[in-house]
Write a structure and sequence with these properties.
The chain is mainly beta and 139 residues long. It has helices at residues 7-15, 30-34, 63-66, and strands at 2-3, 43-44, 53-54, 72-77, 86-91, 96-99, 106-114, 117-128, 131-138. The protein has a 4-stranded antiparallel β-sheet with strand order 1-4-5-6. A 3-stranded antiparallel β-sheet has the order 7-8-9, with no helix packed on it. A two-stranded antiparallel sheet has the order 2-3.
Length: 139
């Protein structure tokens, strides 16, 4: 999901600035990325932070469909094989700019307005065969 700039996201971006050791993947890396040559879940390493970050492969960015430079990608990272799960925000270049840990199954992670204020929201809980039991988070 993509969302335009706001004060909340600008603050999150400023707080998350870190010097990365590895560049993001490009379309030239696609075949190697897809077959796992960079690992099952490639992670970004930082010189200035110990925050875990996944390295995305950005195949293309269509300005007409995805918007301009100020857009973000919202992903509810989940899966038992992943070491770091939870709501995660990436910038349009695939750099992780925010995440929170401890949420194994995250669904519907997105920004929403509630009573005139902007929140990051997601559902977290247990889901089995089309039925779930959990909580909605608003931060």
């Amino acid at each position: 999901m993509l969302f335009g700039p706001s004060a909340l996201f600008a603050i999150l971006h400023l707080l998350s600035v870190a010097i990365a050791d590895d560049p993001t993947f490009t379309i030239a890396d696609a075949e190697k990325y897809d077959v796992g040559e960079f690992g099952r879940t490639p992670e970004q390493k930082f010189e200035t932070s110990t925050i875990p970050a996944y390295r995305l492969l950005k195949r293309q960015w269509d300005e007409e469909q995805c918007g301009n430079d100020d857009e973000y990608i919202f992903i509810g990272v989940r899966g038992s094989r992943l070491a770091h799960r939870g709501p995660t925000i990436f910038d349009r270049d695939g750099h992780q700019i925010w995440n929170t840990q401890g949420y194994d199954k995250v669904y519907n992670f997105k920004p929403q307005m509630y009573k005139g204020k902007q929140y990051l929201t997601w559902w977290h809980g247990i889901d089995t065969m089309g039925h779930g039991q959990g909580l909605v988070y608003m931060v």
